[in-house]
Specification:
With 146 residues, this protein is mainly α. The protein contains two helices and no strands. This is Phasin domain-containing protein.
Length: 146
């Protein structure tokens, strides 16, 4: 196999491994995004249901006394909404951290594997260079001896 063919096949293999890594990274990022969207939608749905329930109870208010009983539920709804929003934000943060850790691990593995391949190639070239230089020294000595 010629040097050009070796370089071409190595370049193609490197490009394929980079494309595979990019696809895996995209898959990890999309999975994280999907999980975050799911958390947000669940929180939103829960809040909408609680708000609709509260608004329905406001529709039943007919006098001042019934209005006084509704206001504490409104404050409780606001408190509950804030707590659920905070809990959802913590979940989203956790998913984002885990996704970033997975992407970091993927990048680290890719860098390590690329370094190993490059080290092997450098060692192979070094071995070929040493053989070639030894052969050249022999030829020069032989030419000088004539």
């Amino acid at each position: 196999m010629s040097t050009f063919e070796q370089v071409s096949s190595q370049f193609l293999a490197f490009g394929k491994s980079q494309a595979d890594a990019a696809l895996k990274a995209q898959s990890l990022a999309l999975a994280g995004f999907e999980r975050i969207a799911d958390i947000e939608l669940q929180a939103f749905e829960s809040q909408v249901n609680a708000t609709v329930e509260f608004l329905n109870s406001l529709g039943e208010v007919r006098d001042f006394e019934s209005a006084r009983t509704v206001w504490p539920r409104g404050f409780a709804l606001a408190k509950q909404s804030a707590e659920k929003a905070y809990a959802a934000s913590l979940e989203v943060f956790d998913v984002a951290v885990k996704t970033n850790e997975a992407l970091g691990t993927l990048a680290k593995e890719k860098i390590e594997s690329t370094n190993e391949v490059l080290a092997q190639q450098v060692n192979a070239v070094k071995g070929q260079f040493e053989k070639s230089s030894e052969e050249l020294v022999k030829r020069v000595k032989k030419a000088v001896a004539k």
